[in-house]
Amino acid sequence: MQNISKSRFLLSVSLILLITGMVSANSDVSEALFLQLQAFLSNYFGWMIIILANGFLIFSIYLLFTKYKNIRLGGPHAKPSYTYINWIAMLFSAGLGIGLLFYGVAEPVMHMNSYPGMIDGNNSYNAGKAINLANLHWGLHGWAIYSSLGLCFAFASYNKRLPFRVSSLLGEKVSANRPLAILIDVIAILTTVFGITTSLGLGAMQISAGMSHIFGVEESFTNYVYIIIVITLLGLTSVSLGLNAGIKKLSQINMIIATGLLFLVFALGPTVFILNALVQNFGAYLNSLIQSATWTEAYDSTAGQDGWTLFYFTWWFAWAPFVSLFIARISYGRTIKEFIVGVLFVPSLIVFLWMGVFGNAAIYQVINNTSEISQIVANNMNVALFTLYDVYPLAQPLSIVSLILIVTFFVTSSDSGALVASMLSSKEQTDINDDSPILSRVTWAILLGIVAAVLLYAGGLTALQTSVVITGVPFAIIVVFACFNLLRGLKESDDAPPRHINSD
Fold first, then answer.
1. Which residue, among 428, 340, 441, 416, has the nearest Cα to 164 in the 3D structure?
2. How far apart are CA 325 and CA 252, in angstroms?
């Protein structure tokens, strides 16, 4: 563990164990506290969360039209370490996988069931609004957060030769102030851990629901723990192999399975309806983007904004240090323009396609009463994806393939999360393959599993969601300062010599 910053590592681990221990010992009190904290942040800082999310989108698009867009990450002669396909596969698998599989069907149906402002009996209006909200939550804004912070990481490391740490992004004065730098890096680590464990918890719940739906295995907290243990062990194997031998290969498998599943649902489902809906949804998203992205419930008070939009934006904030650093690590040799297009627009397009196919396939069943998916999702959203297939031919094979995909995305989040947490707690090392000790990666992989299990025990989905809100908000403010420092660095940059990074 000679390459690990003992202060960052020990302080982070101690705080995580302390928090999880307190939550585990007082689960009822913890759940009530979680709800109070979430309500406080939403009531008093909801407007700020909305501004920040929109600000990062504006910032990313702005950089596309500046003279800095052709700066290459690593210097003018740097060559990309990965092909476009491998690059997109890895950033998408790490950045989205579990969440989209969980909410791709469940969210549009839940919006139609109970979202504020829906009109009873007006399925056309309700369906369009439901999909538009889902696209808002999973589209450009989230990926703009990743793009903004990821570019900060990549430029600082590859062009300024600074370590892969959040404190490195805030300027020399911050980096030189050791206590402040450690505090910022610890906040980033805590944000990473609680952000990832939210997705791991959702993944465990969905895998358990799938096993119940397909094989009749009873859903229970005990099964959640068993699933987390198995996935953690698989993640340990992948994380030990490193980036190229482990995560890259697994990401390729993820994208192959996901693409095949997408086409099967498209072909077996209401194909013409989906095509029409895709076109209409895209236009509706662009037409209402500004209004929907700036809605703050100023004149009414419902649970819509609190439980959905604010949760999603803070979830993206909480995932930002993990995904952004990972994206930066695999983006050596890309220009700033390539980086923004690849991180902001390409994944957003994939999201629109996924949500358009799966979400609209579910909405078709609701509108035409071809299944009981609406009632089933209202009672148990964990089983939404598998319920969708019940009216399809090849229903059981589709469910099994989906279950496999959830597992592989689950493992990808676990191993890449452990790698990033290890890097954030490092000294001056920046190479994710060579300089991140295996013992550190293993420790973080185990901790991620423990925290996910404890949060599920403490309050299930409520605890998972609230942990994201609590940790995501303060980190978003740090990202703002990192973006300002990036602009200053771009103005001063003369492209430092390229660094050697392991490639394909």
1. 428
2. 20
Which residues lie across from 72 on neighbouring strands?
A: 335
> How far from each other are the two terminal CA atoms of the chain, in whole angstroms?
27
Instruction: Using alpha carbons, select from 149, 182, 187, 480 the residue that is nearest to residue 326.
Output: 149
- Strand, coil or helix: 43: helix
Helix (H, G, I), strand (E, B) or coil at 4: strand
Bridge partners, residue 4, by sequence: 426
Q: What proportion of the chain, given as a percentage, has pLDDT over 90?
A: 38
Q: By the 8 A CB rule, do 383 and 376 touch? A: yes
Instruction: Look at residue 108 in the predicted model and tell me its pLDDT.
Output: 95
- Residue pair 280/124 in contact (Cβ under 8 Å)? The answer is no
Q: Delineate the domains of the chain, giving CATH numbers in brackets.
A: 6-295+303-492 (1.20.1740.10)
96-108 pLDDT, tens digit per residue, is 667 788 889 999 9
3-state secondary structure at position 370:
coil
The residues, any chain, with a CB within 8 Å of residue 249's CB and separated by 6 or more, are none
**CA separation for the pair 448, 467 (Å, rounded):** 14
What does the pLDDT look like over 135-158, one tens digit per residue? 999 999 999 999 999 999 999 989
What the block records as the tokens of 399 is 């469910």
pLDDT averaged over the chain? 84
Q: Output phi, psi for 296, to 5 deg.
A: -125, 10
CA distance 192 to 416: 11
Note the pLDDT tens digit of each residue in 365-375. Answer: 999 988 899 99
C-beta atoms surrounding 401 within 10 Å: 17
Judge whether 212 and 383 are in contact, CB under 8 Å.
yes
Distance, CA of 268 to CA of 458 (rounded, Å): 40
Task: Report the distance separating Cα 141 and Cα 285, nearest Å.
Answer: 12
What residues form DSSP beta bridges with 335?
A: 72
Residue 192, phi then psi, degrees to nearest 5: -60, -50
Closest CA to 249 of 412, 100, 403: 412
Please give the full DSSP string across 154-177, using - where no structure is assigned. Answer: HIIIIIT---SSGGGGG-HHHHH-
Rounded distance, CA 240 to CA 474, Å?
Answer: 32
CA distance 148 to 58: 10
Evaluate whether 408 touches 257 at the Cβ level (below 8 Å).
yes
Q: How far apart are CA 178 and CA 291, in angstroms?
A: 43
Torsion of CA 203, 204, 208, 214, to 10 degrees: 30
CA distance 475 to 41: 14
